[in-house]
């Protein structure tokens, strides 16, 4: 009988060699490998690399993403190393671009551009269901093209614009009613970031799916020290409130699955969070699928009964538009739900941050606030309801919004990525799989394109301002096929809010010497804004 040693001589020779090696030598060797690994890549490719920081031992360039504010760190890198800066990001080459002259290919308007992906596919995207659905991180390009087309069509009908204006005005009137309870000269501090977050949540609930929420009511109860006890979500009866809370949890799940590598999901402690967020995703999906099916059935019943549009009881909100504008095929609830989620995400946190940055800048520049309010009153009057037809008559108000987004872009860094095509930018060659980080915040404050770039000067966006700056120098919504498809809706929404609220109130900063409190995750998010609210005479 042949022994195992004779049958597998090479295997046993290797085993004997390994068994004689001290485990400490193995650990030391592995540690040395981790230390030199970042430098191996750096020095191997240094002739083809753009300027950039030397990687740190063990962690490479992870300090840029783990320490401090990522957006500010990349802004500082552009300041130090110039228009093109080379780093690594999540193990891949990442190039920070901070000049509009290099963006023509990355911001191509072609539906066949090789840069229709934002980032490489990750396990987190798959877990979130974003890898093949929606627009934000969809890596399935044919489906992305299909979704973008109908997303834009759903935001375009005049009936939707009218309805969204109506709902925005109604929410403005509700928040004004709550603020009317603030006593004159009380010096009562108002946490405006919390109020605007509640406001945008209620507004988007109506605009996106016709779901009336109670965020502002809850905020008012807290503001007036009324007792508010939140029910367990399983016992909650109000569907709008259920949806609000699920979406709030979803925002945390989004951060978890994007930033926590899959290899850590089963680690002690982290596994509890992974299981919790998985349950939230399942609960949210079931909830959304149910109300999407109900709306589709309601539309089908009216079509079968040949109900006219004048007699229809179906709200012409975003959900209805997604179903009815998609005439080429019948979208499934799964295809619709991710578009609804992204509509909420784009319309709540980003709008809140933009509104707070506008309030902050106008409070520090009352002369611009005075001019904006005079324009609003001359076009709409003090008590008339604003309509969508009024919005084009507010050029200075729009200039205030643009200047605010220039100084404090909600998306300070946007990404482009191609797994298929090498790229030549300036004198540098970038292989496929390179991540390009477009540093919009740095471009927006470049004195080469904007005179006195750190000052708040809305007048720079009046008249034929687009002819005075290079293409891509001002990109608050991005450019090309990956630009924000809801930019026109967002501008409409913010104009309506400013025109309605600023006729009634003005805001004074509690701490006028403090900078605007922003924190960066996937976007800039307002973390704190305290004001005094005063009724306008």
From TrEMBL:
Q: For heme, which residues are the binding ones?
A: 484
Q: Where are the transmembrane segments?
A: 12-36
Recorded superkingdom: Eukaryota
Cofactor section: heme
Q: Which UniProt keywords apply?
A: Heme, Iron, Membrane, Metal-binding, Monooxygenase, Oxidoreductase, Transmembrane, Transmembrane helix
Which Pfam family, an example, fits this chain?
p450
- Record-level Gene Ontology MF annotations: heme binding; iron ion binding; monooxygenase activity; oxidoreductase activity, acting on paired donors, with incorporation or reduction of molecular oxygen
Q: Which family does it belong to?
A: Belongs to the cytochrome P450 family.
Q: What is this protein called?
A: Cytochrome P450
| Species in which this protein is naturally found | Glomus cerebriforme
